[in-house]
Design a protein that fits this description.
The chain is an all-alpha fold. The protein folds into two domains: about 45 residues; about 70 residues, Homeodomain-like (Arc Repressor Mutant, subunit A), CATH 1.10.10. Helices cover about 75% and strands about 0% of the residues. Helix 1 packs across helix 2, helix 2 crosses helix 3 and helix 4 crosses helix 7. The radius of gyration is 20 Å and the shape is elongated. The mean pLDDT is about 90.
């Protein structure tokens, strides 16, 4: 009888954890799709159908970073692509990926990538290097 109770409790816990993961993935997917839009914790918590405090705690526990940092990193990853593949100005790219000011963009980009957007653009014009090596080298460090 005791084993049946333990299995039932274990199944309920597993089911609850799966539901929590699904909710966090739903919010993360929304960030991936609308990274350039103004997204805040209340809106993301509504997408996940949880309270704001619970959302922030659970997102960090699930993905290892806060929702804000994840969104910043996602925006910087898109900016890295645009810096490598276009000749658009850093300021245009800053606004396109969802940053509100060039200063915040440059500071955040440097924190994540380890160099400024302009330096990154100059260094990313590697020629004669296989794409897989370039992509690994260009990947954000945090």
């Amino acid at each position: 009888m005791n084993r049946a109770v333990n299995r039932s409790v274990s199944s309920a816990v597993s089911s609850a954890a799966e539901e929590t993961n699904r909710r966090m993935l739903r919010a993360r997917d929304a960030m991936d799709r609308a990274y350039a839009q103004p997204l805040d914790v209340p809106a993301l918590a509504r997408i996940a159908h949880v309270s704001q405090a619970h959302f922030t705690r659970t997102f960090r526990a699930t993905f290892g970073e806060t929702p804000h940092r994840y969104l910043q990193r996602r925006r910087v990853e898109r900016a890295m692509f645009l810096l490598r593949e276009t000749d658009r100005s850093v300021t245009d790219i800053c606004y396109e990926v969802g940053f509100g000011s060039p200063g915040t963009f440059s500071r955040t980009f440097h924190d994540i990538v380890g160099r400024s957007p302009r330096t990154y653009r100059k260094e990313s014009t590697a020629t004669g290097v296989p794409t897989c090596f370039t992509m690994t080298w260009m990947r954000p460090s945090s």
